[in-house]
Design brief:
Length: 209
């Protein structure tokens, strides 16, 4: 929570009331579907052209205005928000951070982790949970983490009343836009035909039950 507050203190929070309310409305529906009363949910929209979004432990969610161009309606926006919430529900960030601290990944982070102990830990935490761009380092989730977040996320958005099929369209938008926008999200969330096929299978499995 401290890291989240520190981020918000330096970030440019969007003054677009309509879009901010939209983020909160969609986020609250997803939070309700997640059934985690122990999470202190919070949703903020950051005025930044990055195509990015992330969720910290405990339900602290940030969406960047850049991703609104990819998410063309509420259902598509619910796709990405439910996906990021799912990473937090599944504790993927914690796994990613611990892995980076004990593996050769620590070399990749270089001086960021080799500085003073406390700041180094804080920086590793920030990077692991998705907003390491301020340090120039972004770590991709593993393929298994991405698939798990896709699966949980699609179930969540479905429970929240959103159209699951929008997930396919969202990732198709991401694939089409790859390389044309300032998008850290692309490097950490690969969008390809395999992913889209896997998402279609998840939807088919849900619909068949």
């Amino acid at each position: 929570e401290k890291s989240y507050k520190e981020f918000l203190a330096t970030a440019k929070i969007s003054k677009d009331v309509k879009q901010t309310q939209r983020i909160k409305r969609i986020g609250n529906k997803i939070a309700l579907a997640a059934k985690r009363p122990d999470f202190k949910w919070e949703f903020n929209l950051i005025d930044d052209p990055q195509v990015n979004a992330w969720c910290m432990p405990g339900g602290k969610v940030v969406v960047y205005t850049g991703i609104l161009k990819m998410a063309q309606n509420d259902d598509q926006l619910a796709t990405v928000m439910a996906h990021e919430v799912s990473h937090a529900l599944a504790r993927h960030g914690a796994e990613r951070m611990s892995h980076q601290q004990i593996s050769s990944g620590i070399k990749q982070l270089g001086n960021i982790l080799l500085g003073a102990t406390a700041p180094g830990y804080a920086n590793a935490f920030n990077i692991a949970y998705g907003y390491g761009t301020q340090y120039g380092v972004m770590l991709p989730f593993s393929r298994s983490h991405e698939h798990e977040a896709d699966e949980i996320g699609i179930h969540l958005m479905h429970k929240a009343g959103y159209d699951m099929h929008a997930a396919v369209k969202f990732w198709q938008n991401m694939k089409a836009a790859k390389g044309t926008a300032p998008a850290e999200f692309f490097s950490t969330h690969p969008s390809d035909d395999n992913r889209i096929k896997e998402i279609q299978k998840i939807i088919e499995d849900i619909e068949s039950k």
